[in-house]
Amino acid sequence: MRKLFKVKNFFKRITAGILTGAVNGLFGGGGGMVAVPLLGKLCGYEDKEAHATAIFVIAPVCAASALVYIINGYAALDVIIPAAVGSVAGGLAGALMLSKCPKTIINYIFVALMFAAGVRMLF
Question: What pLDDT is attached to residue 22?
Answer without folding.
Answer: 87
